[in-house]
Amino acid sequence: MLQCLFLIAALAIPLAAQKVAYVYCTSPDSRVPAIVYSGPPIFLPLRTLKCGEKVQVAGRRESWIVIASSDGEHYVPMTALSQQKDRFVPINIPLPPEPRLTDRRTGIAMPRITSNPDAEYTDAALKAGVHGSVIVKLTVGKDGSARDLKVMNGLGYGLDESAMKAVQSWKFEPALKDGIPVDCAIAVELDFPPKRH
Description:
By secondary structure, this protein is mainly beta. The chain folds into 2 domains: about 100 residues, TonB (TolA/TonB C-terminal domain); about 60 residues, SH3 type barrels. Helices cover about 10% and strands about 40% of the residues. It is built from 2 helices and 16 strands.
């Protein structure tokens, strides 16, 4: 089994983006047009769009919609575009997934979490006022399942068992070596924030 050890604490699920949107203005004679900006790192105003104008949506970056243009990709605030031309329906495009991290030593693309139900906060931990993080080491199999779980840093009060139970149900995109799924040892951190009775 190829070994790769990495700490993962994020979720990224790729979803399809919409293709078309319309510039939204509060009224057709609005004097505040939608402004198109250049891309990061510095957003500079480039031009304006007319109310109701149809644009091609290429994706999303934080609170910006990326639109396709004859001279490349440009950015429009999310609130300036609508799914429908005659009324405001927000564009719901998820953030793109983070690129996979690759272990430089082994060339293995690290596993990515696709489903991670939360661990339950136990009554014992609540009564004792315990909070913090539990770190669980596990192997992500070629099929994306979690196995060989072990608590590396625990909190007690049933939180370690709760974390193990939750991680056991998580699903992953498996690690890849030269595009082929491989088993990979990782560590994940589950946070138990302070709670009140």
